[in-house]
Amino acid sequence: MFLKAFGNHDMTMTRRNFLSASAGLAATPALGAGAWAAPLPREADIVVIGAGAAGIAAARRIMAANRRVIVVEASNQIGGRCLTDISTFDVPFDRGARWMHNPDSNAMIRLARNAGLDVFAAPIGQKIRVGRRNARAGETEEFLAALVRANRAIDDASRGRADVSCASVLPKDLGDWAGTVEFVLGANATGKDLNDVSVVDRARAQERSAAIACRQGLGTLITTLGKQVPLSLSTPASRIGWSNRDVAVETPAGKIVARAAVITVSSNVLTAGNIKFTPDIPKRHLDAAAKLSLGSYDHIALQLPGNPLDLARDDVIIERSSSTRTALLFANIGGSSLCSIDVAGSFGRDLSAQGEKAMIAFAMEWLTRLFGSEVTSAVKRSTATRWNAAPFALGAMSSAAPGGQASRKILAEPIGCMFLAGEATHETLWGTVDGAWESGERAAEAALRRIGALRDTEPATSAPAAKRRRSNAPGAPIN
Ligand SMILES: Cc1cc2nc3c(=O)[nH]c(=O)nc-3n(C[C@H](O)[C@H](O)[C@H](O)COP(=O)(O)OP(=O)(O)OC[C@H]3O[C@@H](n4cnc5c(N)ncnc54)[C@H](O)[C@@H]3O)c2cc1C
């Protein structure tokens, strides 16, 4: 997922860069070294709910300020929607996010390198199939021109009076490429069809430049960065009592009282009511979370030894399609025989609801249509993710409904001494690991200020993060 074409309005895009990336490697994450074996502490300065990218970033920031933090995580592993599966295939397979972006300003990439992980720019070849053949140069140019016109229309509309749906402003003359444009800008980039995506949200999304992968997987990366963090796995927060002075977080392992909380659960988990709040959290926040619901994005992973598709390492393939019943192929991941067919949006949601078998059947049918029938007999091993059914995520990534872009700022407003974080609270890097990480740092700093552990004048964690935060200020220009 994620298009480099997000902010591009000219014709300088080449065949190689109409997509900046896609999503997903796999793994069974190791227990973080800081994971709690002892009884849960009764007190902390700040408690963090959730050990995904936002939660780990928040906890590290609090530890850097020498304050006591404890992270409670519902699942039995660190990483949340960054989850590397190391047991299904002979290479790590990211079941959730697989790319980071913006290497010049991305703190996670620097931290990954410092931790000895192998971080590299993925060599992504991007191709389009027209049935069983590759698109001709002229067809590719036509598609890129259609993509540019669609992006420009969305950008123009975002400056209008009303925050309408992206689909409603698309040029009517996209011809044979309408379905592909819809898939690339909608389902594949945001997890939702363009009908369900706000023009302002889409236009405010920063360009996600350069796809940066971690050879060991993004889940492994978050697990590694969480190693020193005191955290308790398999410890869902069930109820949070809150006021302006303190919070009391109830879990099956006991209650923790703290002076502030950073809450990083997804917008869908928040609106599902899985955590009860006493008193209830304001309707304003719940309404905001509902407008930032998660789209659907899943990987169907097939091991195809012998390169039967005859593709290069890390090739990304889409097709000319007249409907949304389509997918993106990420082939020969990292030079291995692992290929991922990504499905998303309303089609992906319906398909994943039918279960793993139906998903794998679709992937086989789709590959056969594009590459011929020999492909399916080559499949050695397969698996599919189903993020909408994952109880602690309930979807893939947030995008704002038409009219809903302002909800991101509302969701990040403090509630007593509770501070919400997570990708949905990031105004421009929503839907990304990078945005989740920054949001965790930002919420931790707000919580530290709240308890008097950080003065308003103190600098933010890192220069790039501070710079990015400034550029995300309301009214600041978007790249
Ligand atoms: C298939 C897929 C592909 C993606 N591809 C990319 C990509 O290539 N690049 C990219 O940048 N982004 C990608 N994303 C999006 C990215 O994964 C997310 O934006 C990011 O990981 C969100 O991090 P987070 O910390 O905000 O939330 P989460 O990772 O959801 O963390 C929240 C944590 O809270 C925990 N939790 C939930 N309920 C409770 C509770 N009651 N008590 C305690 N803990 C609880 C959850 O278990 C979870 O660990 C992808 C997502 C998916 C699903």
Can you describe this structure?
With 479 residues, this protein is of the alpha/beta class. The protein has one domain (1-123, 130-297, 388-479): 3-Layer(bba) Sandwich (FAD/NAD(P)-binding domain), CATH 3.50.50. The protein is built from 14 helices and 19 strands. The chain has helices at 53-64, 107-114, 137-158, 178-190, 199-204, 218-225, 267-272, 283-291, 345-353, 356-371, 374-377, 407-411, 433-450, 463-471; strands at 43-49, 69-72, 84-85, 93-94, 119-121, 125-130, 133-134, 212-214, 231-232, 239-242, 247-251, 254-263, 276-278, 297-303, 315-319, 328-331, 338-344, 381-384, 418-420. The longest helix has 22 residues, at 137-158. The protein is globular, with a radius of gyration of 22 Å. The relative contact order is 0.19. The protein binds flavin-adenine dinucleotide (FAD). The site of flavin-adenine dinucleotide has 47 residues, from α1, β14 and α13.
Secondary structure: elements and pairs:
Elements: E1 43-49, H1 53-64, E2 69-72, E3 84-85, E4 93-94, H2 107-114, E5 119-121, E6 125-130, E7 133-134, H3 137-158, H4 178-190, H5 199-204, E8 212-214, H6 218-225, E9 231-232, E10 239-242, E11 247-251, E12 254-263, H7 267-272, E13 276-278, H8 283-291, E14 297-303, E15 315-319, E16 328-331, E17 338-344, H9 345-353, H10 356-371, H11 374-377, E18 381-384, H12 407-411, E19 418-420, H13 433-450, H14 463-471
Parallel strand pairs: 1-2, 1-12, 2-9, 6-15, 10-13, 12-19
Antiparallel strand pairs: 3-4, 5-8, 6-7, 10-11, 11-12, 14-17, 14-18, 15-16, 16-17
Helix pairs in contact: 1-13, 3-4
Bound molecules: flavin-adenine dinucleotide.
Flavin-adenine dinucleotide binds next to α1, β14 and α13.
